[in-house]
Amino acid sequence: MRCMSCQCLSLRTFCKNCETNLLAPSITKRTIGTLDVYSFYKYLNIENLLLTKHNPQGYRIFKALANITLKPFIEKFIVADPREIYIIGIDEKVKNGYSHVSLLAHSMKSKGVKVLHSSLMAQNRVSYAGKTLQYRIENPRNFIYKGKSKIEAILVDDIITTGITLQEAQNVLLSHGVNVLFALTLADAKE
Ligand SMILES: [Zn+2]
Q1: How far apart are the CA of 34 and the centre of ligand 1, in A?
Q2: I need a labelling partner for 83 at 20 to 30 A (CA). Which of 63, 95, 113, 151 fits?
């Protein structure tokens, strides 16, 4: 089998070289309103990998990306912060037999960290691709939350563009008594 990034022969999803060089995470932070959002990559650097969420091979790729970003991040985080934490993925809709956001959230499951799968689902899935901030504001996702209240949570998504979706999610959760500590995304698509 071949490395899904450079196509060289490799037994792993990503070869050692890609994992340690090309795919070495570099965390950046953006603040949207009162929400801090941390991202591991610049969107353009891994765009071809992120686009695989639209086809079946994305299953392996998103799992592998989560294992070199979100998983080590949360492991370090809970050592420093022993509160009980819940992970909430943004709209874990299933396509091609899997949900890429669900794979990301699942990778963070560990001692003291619980994943509330499919608890925050969008009712409006109109495409935001290429749309203005104004359009996104006028066409909110209209999330329904069916998870626990009075908890501390970390939000997870694949990409942050304007941050409007994450902010909407934070507000919905807040109205259910969920304190969102911060959000994590694989990639930041800000130019
Ligand atoms: Zn490679």
Answers
A1: 38
A2: 63
Task: Say whether pLDDT at 40 is over 70.
Answer: yes
Give mean pLDDT, residues 128-133.
Answer: 90
Output the domain CATH number for residue 150.
Answer: 3.40.50
Alpha carbons 34 and 166: distance in angstroms, whole number: 11
Q: In what order do the strands lie in the sheet with 151-160?
A: 28-32, 35-42, 178-188, 151-160, 85-89, 113-115
Q: Cα(72) to centroid of ligand 1, in Å?
A: 20
Is 3 a member of any domain?
Answer: no
Q: Predicted confidence band at 191 (pLDDT cuts at 50, 70, 90)?
A: low
Number of domains in the chain: 1
Range of the domain at 41: 24-188
